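Ticket #4471: structure export looks truncated?
Reporter: QA, pipeline team
Priority: medium

Steps to reproduce: submit the single chain below to the structure queue and open the exported record.
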Amino acid sequence: MGNCLKSPTSDDISLLHESQSDRASYGDGTDPDQEPPPPYEEQIHMPVYHPTPSQARLATQLTEEEQVRIAQRIGLIQHLPKGVYDPGRDGSEKKIRECVICMMDFVYGDPIRFLPCMHIYHMDCIDDWLMRSFTCPSCMEPVDAALLSSYETN
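Actual output as written to the record:
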């Protein structure tokens, strides 16, 4: 049987061996060698993109060709229809009730996105999915081919 707790590190063990007097003197300002903790620094969130499904890189590490492909993909995703989840009054059992990506039930008012194959997902879930793989997670239908063919017929 496994243990879900992390294994003890050297920091954890040093805390166990620390004497009561050391802990009592910590923070009372009597130790001139002890520095105050560093000020809180907000982390700048750098977007991570997936030039291929198995790779993840920061935006600053992408080649120009990869940046163009990702921009095109974002443009295609933005052209997919979106809406708001409304289960309706009939409560039909055929109505899709769960996003298969996050496996959470749809709630009235959730922003959703429709794929050309008519599957629906939470907008955040499917947008992230489509940045990695341009296929429907349910039926594996290529989304870009359906989108491009719909543009050609219009």
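Status: closed, not a bug. The export was complete when the record was re-opened. Leaving a note from the reviewer for reference: The two ends are 60 Å apart (CA to CA).
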